[in-house]
Amino acid sequence: MLVTSPHLRRRPRILLAIATAFASVLALTAGLLTANASAAPGPTVRDGSSGRCLDAAARSTRSGAGPNTPACDGQRDQRRTTAAEDADTEPPTVPGNPRVSDLRCDSVTFAWDAASDDVAVAYYDVYHDGQLMKSVGGDTRSTSLTVVPGASWGLYVNARDEAGNVSQASDTVPIAAPQCQADDQAPSAPDGLTASVSGTTVSLRWSASSDNIGVRAYDVYRGTAKAGTVNGNGASAPDTTFIDSGLDAETDYEYHVVARDAQSNTSARSETVNVRTEAACGSPVCGVTQVATDTDIPWGLVTLPDGSILYTRRDAQDIVRLDPGTGDRTTVGTVPDVESTDGEGGLLGLAIAPTFATDHWLYIMHTSPRDNRIVRIKLEDDKLATDTSEVLLSGILRNKFHNGGRLRFGPDGKLYAATGDAQNGDNAQDKDSLNGKILRLDPDGSVPSDNPFGNYVWSYGHRNPQGLAFDSQGRLWEQEFGNAVMDETNLVTKGGNYGWPACEGTSGTCDTAGYIAPKRTYSTADGSCSGIAVVRDVLYVACERGTRMYRAPISDGGLPEAQVYFNGTYGRLRTVEPAPDGGLWLTTSNTGDKDSIPDNSDEQILHVALD
Question: Is 462 a catalytic residue?
Fold first, then answer.
């Protein structure tokens, strides 16, 4: 017998369907939901034999394909709710006093004090660094977590009520998991190093090293300087190839490679290989020049009509004007009402309209004490004229992570904004929510008359998008952080549903009718990508955890291949933007990018010359 909670599902069409079609649902689920099925904590429908939950939102039974039963997580697609719960819009308070105990190489106990709610706390969602680890019931105050040996993580918890309202995150508790066993044995030296030259690009290849536990990374040296690092992802060994691009023409270089294991035991160096670059570039990426450094995190970046750069500093909450020819920097002002989140919120996206030369408006997305919002402020005489500030759109939910933040003007003259789900996957599928979306605004903040749902929403079903770019055909491309499986690059269409939270990349219930598949995916270990840019119909993707830039030519509306550049050369890459000479601006995000402390970073702004 199927046992459910007494609550009815939120959506009106499901309220009707329960009365008229529940018998057919039972028939379709025969053999799947068995006699020992039982109610999960909260209003869910659980299969007692598999322990998995019915996804009522997918309504697979309507097509005769059978119901979807993802892992139970208490999200809206697995719940039925009453009208009273629909009326509840008050989130719980922040869980207090987060703490850890019994830290071992593969586990830790994480505990917190109870949050409160005007109705009741139904769930606690536990994260590390923006990645959901597990959800537990509202009566739980402590849980055991699986950790990776040697990992350094920041743990925190959000409270969630039955209506789906999510609290702000708790304080972050840093952990550094020990290794499971002592290891002082170094890997063997890489063997068989070879090199080939194409213009000013050198491609290296070698044979894999061996290790008593496992090789974690290869460090590639150009002379005595580290040119880059090829990392494994924990589940698989690192690749044994490396591309070194943007070198000086007609110049001699010497390379060697060393292997490292998880406990930083380093092999002897490989044999060396010597090469000489050619006179002409001969490859897509021709040269890299450091334009400037910064002690804060560059986030949004635009090129002004005179060729200078404006960029936001996320944690310092100000905007800097940079002369790329001289490296001279001038602070044009601090953006008012910005508040960081002890995570990834703060001063984020920056855009200018094609009319900037006459109207001087800067369009800015930032976190405030209350929400995420989009404002515009005029730049007059190289200063922010804060008395001109206008709030174009407010009420975009904020949280420690998943704030989105990228802005981009389209060829239609509209402003597009990427918003995160605010650590609540329910928001992404709710077309009345501003979160987990690509939004489209008129420059004055009004809703364009041709938006698909009569509000600001252009597309939905997004987790944490941070990249937006248009190609030569006016098509919008979007880059999105995955949770633990894969990132995705999407070709965004009007009114499109990109599947989150049921679908992550191509993982999950991605065959649900109406979901739009990504054009390319990347493992989160090789990706965790933020900004994107399109130059001559080639997509460039800046990746943080993956510490690389992908180059993917656009072909027939797809991305059939992607080449890796700067693998570990500059560390975590945040923002990539077109430069006026046909190249790229590229920024790093290496230190202090999860703590909201101003001026505790060591970042670069780079110019990348393209062929």
Answer: no
